[in-house]
Amino acid sequence: MNWKQIPLGPLQTNCYLLFNEDKQCIVIDPGAQGEDLIQYMEQEGLKPLAICLTHAHYDHIGAVENVRSHWGIPVYIHENEKEWLTDPSLNGSARHPMEPVSGQPADHHLEKEGALEIGPFTMEVLETPGHSPGSVSYYIKEIETVFSGDALFNGGIGRTDLLGGDHATLIDSIHNKLLSLPDQTTVLPGHGFSTSVEKEKTSNPYL
Q1: Distance (Å, whole) CA 168 – CA 94
Q2: How many angstroms separate the CA atoms of 115 and 89, rounded?
Q3: pTM above 0.85, yes or no
Q4: Could you tell me if residue 101 is inside a domain?
Q5: Which helix (H) or strand (E) holds 91?
Q6: Per-residue pLDDT reduced to its tens digit, 21-59
Q7: Quick check: 190 and 174 in contact, CB under 8 A?
Q8: What is the pLDDT of residues 57-72, one digit of tens each?
Q9: How many structural domains comprise the chain?
Q10: In what residue span(s) does the Metallo-beta-lactamase domain sit (predicted)?
Q11: Domain that includes residue 24, residue range
C-alpha cells in the first residue's frame, strides 16, 4: 500500500491517493481541479473505490462531484457535517469571491470511531474535531500513517475561527487522538509538508 500527495487549488490543499498494488484507490479530500485530478488518476491506471473526506470546508471538497460522477463512487463524511456538501454557507465558499461550492449529499455518514472497510482497505476513523465539528482523521496501522486533515500540521495546528471551530476541542483532539499514536507514525496534513507524531510532540510551538 502506498500514497500520493497532490496539492490542489489556490490554497494548495493536499489531496491524497491511497492505493495498493492492484491500483485500487481511495481518494482523500479532492479539493479542486477535478479534471486535472481525474486525468492524473487515469494516466496512472488507478481505480478509485471511494472518496473519504477529513472535513467539508470548501477547499477540501471542490472536486468531489467531478470525481464521484466520473467513477460512480461513494462519498464518506462525518455525520456532523452531512449538510455541508450541499450548503455554501456551511462549507465556507459563500464567504469568498468564488463560485459557491455545492453538490449532492454524501453517500455514507461516519457516526463513530472505529474500523472503516472499503474494498481491500481498512482505515481507523478517529474523531478529531476542533477545526470543524465533523473533522476526522484516517489512521492506517499497516503503513504507520495518519491523514490528519486540518487538525495537525507540520509545526502548526488548524485554525479555529471558522464555523463550529473550538480551540480547546482541537487541542484535546490532537493530544488524545493524534499524539497518542506511535511516535513513528507519519502525519499527512491537509496543507503543507508531512511530519511525524514524534516531531510534533517535541517541537510544535502550538502544543
Answers
A1: 27
A2: 31
A3: yes
A4: no
A5: helix 88-91
A6: 999 999 999 999 999 999 999 999 999 999 999 999 999
A7: no
A8: 999 999 999 999 999 9
A9: 1
A10: 12-191
A11: 2-94+109-203
